Fold this protein.
Amino acid sequence: MMEPLGEQVIKKCSGCGISLQHTAQGEPGYLPEKAWDREPVICQRCFRIKNYNEVASVAVDQDEFLRLLGQIGEKKALVIHIVDIFDFEGSLISGLQRFVGNNPVILAVNKIDLLPKVTNWNKLLNWVQKQCKEQGLRTTDIVLCSAKKNQGFDRLLDTMAAHRGDRDVYVVGATNVGKSTLINRLIRDYSDLEQELTTSRYPGTTLDMVNIPLDDGRYIVDTPGIVYPWRYSELVSRDDLGVVMPENPLKPLVYQLNEGQTLFFGGMGRFDFIKGEHQSFTCFISGRLNIHRTKLERADSLFEEHAGELLSPPTKERLEEMPEWTRHEIRIPKGSGSDIFISGLGWVKVNGDMGALVAVHVPKGVKVLQRPSLI
């Protein structure tokens, strides 16, 4: 499909209608240059759906995502909002409620396979409910799941069936929360797509929402992933992303610290125990990220001399491409039962109830906050 624009010709995907481009893989409308002259012409994302029953993630900025979200409130929809339990506050779509109107929302809390096996799931569910309430998000139901490990998926299907009726299912989420994995499971379990997608051109909608037909004539509507710049996963290179984002269950690392001690998380972040009684802190971070302990008085010089070498990843070259570090000072009240959360990097649990003064150093813009302990 082609549209004239002055002397230029804009090619559009015959699957979803988006304008095609061949310069930015992973962005909406990407088509390899070698496939540019094929007919009918479809973007790489639609090609993967049609030939492999597989959705590939695309991403858009916040403004475009909010414009797309605004359309959902006008539809009769069931919204599945996928969040990453490892980066819960970083991946939760703030303000979702005002965009979806009265449509029901199922919160799919993905990647629970990363949590220790001894996790109390009822307490975790209560924790999620409280966090949603604080964020003003009304959920019809909450499902703890792992799309990767097929945990909780039957429960998600049953919950969808209970609330869907004759609604289309809109799936929304930030980048890197496992949205594509979950949608691909929905495709395999909820729709006879192999025949459908190979014998007819499936309908698309505006920009890069993709309508995936269900057996009853309704659709799973795959929306693009929103890019939140406060997540560490949006700052690091593709190579370092595999180090920062865990793929295997987290192994909590407990450190007994005196005031005036510092923990470095590779060259990605730093945790200072500034003032307080001797107490323990538990780090929940990727097992591929080394933790280095030192004295607070030596921390600045250590980073200056060894960032990108002893303190890595990232490498020196990649470190120079990232924003300058910002210091976040946090006072932890006695008996608060708190985590210090770093979006996309993990969290540090404060085990003692004596109170403490701590500081976190991370690249400028990365979200750091104190929250009730997840575990």
Remarks:
- Residues 2-52 form one domain.
- Residues 1-8, 193-207 have pLDDT under 50 and may be disordered.
